[in-house]
Amino acid sequence: VTVDAFIAGLPKCELHLHIEGTLEPGLKFALAQRNGIELPYADEAALRAAYDFHDLPGFLSVYYEGMSVLRTEQDFYDLAAAYAAKAHSQNVRYAEIFFDPQAHTARGVAFDTVIRGLTRALDDAERETDFKGRLVMCFLRDFQAEFAMATLVQALAYKEWIIGVGLDSDEAGNPPVKFREVFARARAEGFRLTMHCDVDQKNSTEHIRQVVEEIGVDRIDHGVNALEDPSLIERIRARGLGLTVCPISNAHVTDGMKAAEIRALLDQDVKVTVNSDDPAYFLGYVAENLAALREPAALSDADLVRLQRNAIEISWAAPAVREEFL
Ligand code: ADE
Ligand code: ZN
Predict the structure, then answer these.
(1) Which residues contact 184 (CB under 8 A, 6 or more apart)?
(2) What is the best residue among 56, 67, 83 to mutate for testing ligand 1's pocket, by most ligand atoms within 8 Å of CB?
(3) How far is ligand 1, taken at its centre, from the CA of residue 169, in Å?
(4) Are 263 and 217 in contact (CB under 8 A)?
(5) What does the domain layout of the chain look like in residue ranges?
């Protein structure tokens, strides 16, 4: 896709971006070499050829395999610094960035290593550019709730570096209510809450109902299947809950970009936003997502502006950041 001048220049806000999903093949090879890790691919081209996903589990296995090269604080620094530079180049002014600590602690990398590297890179970017990034800690829903709770407790010592918590990974058989106690505790500790309700999952509308009615999230990641239930979409609209959708990601792991659904959400005044999810794997950062969606969703310039306003409105940015953006 070509990014036109309007999209390129638009000040942007991104709310659904997994930092581990920004690990580009070049950096993956460089970190593998630095850490003495042998990747099961001869070169970058062979690695890219493995990026052929048709569903969420297929993507996730490649995504987790790729993380093996991330070992030291400097590795996490380099990962977040590369994303911050890319985001800045696309005029992203503010991003809320997911990280998956359990994917690292489960293979012996300390929580402290992960969060220090990421935070230091975001702090440096904020000092040097007009890009600001904040961290949202995701729990992996295919692990047990006890591991999520232990991770939450571990994170309390770093509270000032984390603005919210989320839930990601494989949704099949892992409903939101599995994490009821974890999210209740997270809310009591002052974190904002979001959860993935991935597109076209087996119990999508029931999972969306759970996040709205039983978990009490502050927003929903993906969640476009709410359109199948008018009373659900009305509750989402009335509460001002945002949906962070990811068109190019959806094109890879579902049957399409969901452009008609995104158009419908805009037309029904739901606070929908456009995001990149895992841009190094799905081959599109936020500008490319907006560009890819522009014609299929019949997005006017005013719609593109509205998507950014929706994003900053449903963000958890401090009032000063919000005012600067709007
Ligand atoms: N982890 C990284 N990207 C994800 C996605 N799109 N859905 C669920 N878990 C994820
Ligand atoms: Zn995601």
Answers:
(1) none
(2) 56
(3) 5
(4) no
(5) 5-325
Residue 240 has pLDDT above 90, yes or no: yes
Helix, coil or strand: residue 27: helix
- Ligand 1 within 6 A of 66 CB? no
Amino acid (1-letter code) at residue 126: E
- Are 262 and 289 within 8 A, CB to CB? no
Nearest 5°: CA angle at 15, between 64 and 270?
A: 125
Fold (topology level) of 5-325 = TIM Barrel (3.20.20)
With CA atoms as reference, report the closest residue to 151 among 176, 115, 120, 199: 115
The distance between the two most distant Cα atoms of the chain, rounded to a whole number of Å, is 54
- pLDDT for position 5: 98
Cα 290 to chain centroid, rounded: 16
Region 302-320: mean pLDDT is 97
**Mean pLDDT for the chain?**
98
pLDDT in tens, 43-79: 999 999 999 999 999 999 999 999 999 999 999 999 9
Of 201, 277, 282, the residue with max ligand 1 atoms within 8 A of its CB, to mutate for a pocket test, comes to 277
Answer whether 278 contacts ligand 1 (Cβ < 6 A): yes
User: Is 14 touching ligand 1 by the criterion CB < 6 Å?
Assistant: no
| Confidence tier at 31 by pLDDT (50, 70, 90) | very high
- Burial degree of 32 (CB within 10 A; 0-12, 13-18, 19+): middle
